[in-house]
Design goal:
Length: 106
């Protein structure tokens, strides 16, 4: 499957997802169980932007919010199986392209 034919990339192309939402989903899959603030700091995106992205990703079934087992005041984010599959698909399709780019870009 070509990248532009993958469901998540079609969603980006048609404006259903923003690139920051895909970046957030990748970050959640890579490092699950962190808080909104953690992902905001990691990606350099404001907390309100992260919260909006979370709402969209959760509505689409890619992530789930849950209470932190260590601090009940915090909500943590975890990917669903569908979210992991979507990131894996994007990574498989973009990995060959990244070999030709400087490491800082990928």
């Amino acid at each position: 499957m070509k990248l532009e034919n993958s469901p998540i990339m079609r969603a980006v192309a048609y404006g259903f997802f923003e690139v920051r939402q895909v970046a957030l989903l990748c970050a959640i899959v890579e490092r699950p169980g962190l808080s909104v603030r953690d992902y905001s700091d990691q990606l350099g995106i404001t907390k309100p932007c992260v919260t909006r992205a979370i709402t969209t990703l959760e509505a689409q079934g890619y992530i789930k919010r849950s209470q932190s087992p260590h601090d009940r005041r915090l909500l943590v984010l975890n990917p669903t199986a569908e979210g992991c599959d979507a990131v894996e698909e994007v990574m498989q399709e973009t990995a060959p392209t990244c070999h030709n780019l400087p490491a800082a870009v990928c």
